[in-house]
Amino acid sequence: MGKVLFIRQQTYNQPEIDSSILRAFDHFGGITHFVSRGEKVLLKVNLVSGHDVTRRVTTDPSIVRAVAKLVLEAGGTPFIADSPGIDSFKSAAEKAGFMAVARELRIECRELTDPVDLPASEGADFKRIQVSRQVIEADKIISLAKLKTHGQMYLTMGVKNLFGTIPGRLKAGWHYNVGLNRERFASLLLDIYLGVRPDFTILDGVIGMHGDGPTSGDPYEFGIIGACVDALTMDFHFCNMLGGKLEDYPLYMAAKKRDMPQCTLSPSDIEGDIPASHVFPGVKLPKTRSMRLLPHIPFLDRLMTSKPVHIPERCIGCGRCAAVCAAGALRHENKRLYFDYGKCIRCYCCHEMCPVKAIEFRESRLVKFVNMLR
């Protein structure tokens, strides 16, 4: 049996989604292989911020509904949960359609709060990471991730979805502490993933996002659902399938530095409807940094990393960008943003939280010159 199952799925029609999700679990032994009667099962969705379902920023509610129903049928007690970066959880979950699923199935939809220490995995770089108590106390965790590009980390899929187990504003603190070193941030993501150890991961790639993800990109009809126990293997294969280079994927480089076996990919890892050799055409990947060309030195990183810029004609003056900036690198006055690029850590949280795409990336002249030479 392969490590990852790829299912071709073109629409969010609920009966079709139900069938595909059932197939995903059955491929790995069935829902009762993962969930026992009476167990509390955390369904970790992607709820980065409050967006309408049609923006394709968040996990589609049809997938959440299908998984929750299977857990209920197995006798488990599912609850939908995440921790948005800045929005009110209730408002964001309502917009994403998760609250409607919770009401229909009479289950809970909770914000991940109450930080506690996550037991460190063997060989962890970060010895003290705090995640929500609800993560630690859940009997089982099923991660329901979204297939998207990501301005800072290149891609966000199964592993990156677990960053949301860190409650609220603590995430901004990690962005600030890790700074510009993307491989360092990727190492943090590895430690969270290996510490949380989700029991199963489903990736919503029916309609994902490319371009300026994870919130300001464009929808892309990948027509695929991924399912696995090992999200690292799935994420690395998807990088290739999206036309990306593994050397440009910080998560892969961090795993390779630890000599993790998932870095050795094989076509036999993949089963299902779409082979590992498939490449999705025309996927726009982020160009936020010329990866692997120079060592990670803060001064050079700033020169080699795209900077956020303001598009004033789109701005609605909500102030979310300034509120989320952990580095205190921007101020907002009369629908104008003023960036202090000396302070900016290039986490792109301002871009991620903007609801109207009023912040974009701009490559430095040095990046453009280096890319011409590649």
Describe this structure in words.
The chain folds into two domains: 4-272, Rossmann fold; 298-373, Alpha-Beta Plaits (2-Layer Sandwich). The longest helix has 15 residues, at 182-196. Strands 1, 2, 3, 4, 7, 8, 9, 10, 11 and 12 form a ten-stranded mixed sheet that branches. A two-stranded antiparallel sheet has the order 5-6. Residues 289-294 have low confidence and may be disordered. Helix 1 (14-27) packs across helix 3 (61-73) and helix 3 packs parallel to helix 5 (98-105). The protein starts with a strand and ends with a helix. It is of the alpha/beta class and 374 residues long. The protein has 14 helices and 16 strands. The chain is 32% helix and 22% strand.
Quick description:
The protein is α/β, with parallel strands linked by helices and 374 residues long.
Count of domains: 2
The low-pLDDT segments are 289-294
Given this structure, which CATH class of the largest domain is correct? Alpha Beta
Per the CATH scheme, the topology name of the largest domain is Rossmann fold
Helix-strand sequence: EHHEHEHHEEEHEEHHEEEHHEHEHEEHEH
How many individual β-strands? 16
Tell me the overall shape.
globular
As a percent range, the share of helical residues equals 25-40%
Distance between the termini: 40 Å
Overall CATH architecture of the largest domain: 3-Layer(aba) Sandwich
Beta-strand level of the residues, as a percent range?
15-25%
